[in-house]
Design the sequence.
């Protein structure tokens, strides 16, 4: 499908070169289509850029949807123990997504938007981040009832950041662990450590 191929190619090009640096001519060439296809399907470069953001959000929603749905139910009626397991499952799911090859292009695109947000960041946030934050914070609120709301938000950010390092800092992860890639054994080690770290933080009580 031409529009799908254009979007996937655009995500890679925009992630590597930014909006200004990416060439629509090169995107069309790498997609095996004419430049007029970009205008036809998306109205131009800006429309393609926003479509790329929407596509990333939709892909993340599809991957994380089942875990999010379960976590949302638990956040509303579950016990503290159930909320803890649901939150750990969300963290693990995002960690696994960060290891997936296709997340590399997404991460490059999203990181640029994190550093210099545009309308595309608004699309990413409304399309998936906002829902993830809401569920994550609701779970944390059931688990760490001792913390005020602002500290719960900060805790959520710090917990979630542990999953992002697996993609954003991939070169450092493999160099430090002395591996060429995150293989099955390394993946198991990192997932186990993430779970252990989160459990320690979630059970901690401030003095």
Sequence:
């Amino acid at each position: 499908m031409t529009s799908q191929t254009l979007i996937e190619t655009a995500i890679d090009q925009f992630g590597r070169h930014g909006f200004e640096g990416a060439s629509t001519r090169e995107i069309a060439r790498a997609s095996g289509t004419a430049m007029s296809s970009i205008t036809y399907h998306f109205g131009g470069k800006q429309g393609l850029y926003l479509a790329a953001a929407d596509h990333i959000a939709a892909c993340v929603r599809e991957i994380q949807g089942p875990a999010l749905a379960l976590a949302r139910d638990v956040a509303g009626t579950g016990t503290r123990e159930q909320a803890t397991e649901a939150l750990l499952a969300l963290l693990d799911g995002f960690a696994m997504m960060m290891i997936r090859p296709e997340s590399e292009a997404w991460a490059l695109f999203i990181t640029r938007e994190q550093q210099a947000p545009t309308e595309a960041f608004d699309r990413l946030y409304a399309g998936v981040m906002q829902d993830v934050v809401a569920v994550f914070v609701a779970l944390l609120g059931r688990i760490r009832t001792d913390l005020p709301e602002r500290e719960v938000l900060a805790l959520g950010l710090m917990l979630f950041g542990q999953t992002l390092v697996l993609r954003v800092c991939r070169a450092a992860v493999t160099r430090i662990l002395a591996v060429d890639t995150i293989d099955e054994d390394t993946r198991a080690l990192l997932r186990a450590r993430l779970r252990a770290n989160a459990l320690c933080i979630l059970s901690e009580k401030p003095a």
